[in-house]
């Protein structure tokens, strides 16, 4: 088996993983005003926040390029790959996963799987890293898919945002429109539900209480088993460190990392968001 993995730029990956020759990463364009950018190529994360602050309208994102994915699959076929796994941001926040299903039939010489990650960011990156490692260790294709599904089923994220406008106007929050105009009195906690859709989980009165509630929720959802846990933020280092310290004080800092949301996800969450993502160690 010669396996390649394809993902998108929302997956948080280390530089050494990004350099693997059997990994391909699809760009997701960010529109700020009338200009389209590709993060990491003609837009740094710092520049993204500066341009977002200066823009009179909220940034927008589009889906990865279907043509580019088709081109990568053709290239992999010509290079003698036999198997492909594509792991992309949740179908609950992007239509890309639904739109690529037909491609598997276009390459009968390749065994292709596109499991729905139902997540994004660091947990998605963990799935990509694990898949590459399992393949290198000689795990067969069906067993890799079984392990991936086990990881997907145990993965989620809970999010605290400063401003719901980004999510509601972007159509990424299924039940949040009723909260607009009421943010002075509440600090909503959001989460990825079982279908990978972002919904309101609870409404808490203050940020301090919301962070405490996030810590309690993390304890509840990870009580059985071993998990990787990521504190993920969009230019909210102080809140992320506060979250980390609270967990450390409780003895919950094992397998815990602080990472940043990329510009694509920050487009929809806005500046100041902090989240925790958790995924089982399979």
UniProtKB/TrEMBL annotation:
UniProt keyword list: Lipid-binding
InterPro entries assigned: DegV, DegV_C, DegV_domain_contain
Keyword Nucleus: no
MF GO annotations: lipid binding
Highest rank taxon of the organism: Bacteria
Keyword Translocase tagged: no
PANTHER family given in the database record: DEGV DOMAIN-CONTAINING PROTEIN DR_1986-RELATED, FATTY ACID-BINDING PROTEIN TM_1468
Role according to the record: May bind long-chain fatty acids, such as palmitate, and may play a role in lipid transport or fatty acid metabolism.
Protein name: EDD domain protein, DegV family
Species, as recorded: Streptococcus equinus ATCC 700338
């Amino acid at each position: 088996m010669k396996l390649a993995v394809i993902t998108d730029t929302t997956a948080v990956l280390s530089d050494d993983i990004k350099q693997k020759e059997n990994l391909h990463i699809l760009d997701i364009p960010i529109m700020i005003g009338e200009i389209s950018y590709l993060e990491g190529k003609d837009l740094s994360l710092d520049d993204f926040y500066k341009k977002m602050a200066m823009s009179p309208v909220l940034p927008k994102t589009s889906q990865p390029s279907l043509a580019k994915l088709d081109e990568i699959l053709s290239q992999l076929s010509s290079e003698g790959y036999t198997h492909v796994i594509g792991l992309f941001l949740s179908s609950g926040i992007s239509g890309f996963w639904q739109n690529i299903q037909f491609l598997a039939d276009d390459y009968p010489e390749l065994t292709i799987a596109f499991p729905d990650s139902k997540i994004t960011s660091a947990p998605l990156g963990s799935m990509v890293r694990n898949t590459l490692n399992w393949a290198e260790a000689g795990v067969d294709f069906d067993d890799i898919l079984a392990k991936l599904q086990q990881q997907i089923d145990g993965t989620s994220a809970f999010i605290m945002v400063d401003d719901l406008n980004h999510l509601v106007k972007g159509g990424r929050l299924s039940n949040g429109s009723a909260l607009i105009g009421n943010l002075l009195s509440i600090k909503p906690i959001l989460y990825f539900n079982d279908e990978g859709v972002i919904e309101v989980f609870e409404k808490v009165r203050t940020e301090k209480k919301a962070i405490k509630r996030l810590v309690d929720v993390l304890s509840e959802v990870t009580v059985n088993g071993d998990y990787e846990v990521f504190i993920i933020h969009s230019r909210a280092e102080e809140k992320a460190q506060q979250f980390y310290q609270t967990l450390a004080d409780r003895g919950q800092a094992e397998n815990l990392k602080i990472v940043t949301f990329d510009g694509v996800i920050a487009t929809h969450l806005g500046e100041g968001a902090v989240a925790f993502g958790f995924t089982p160690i399979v």
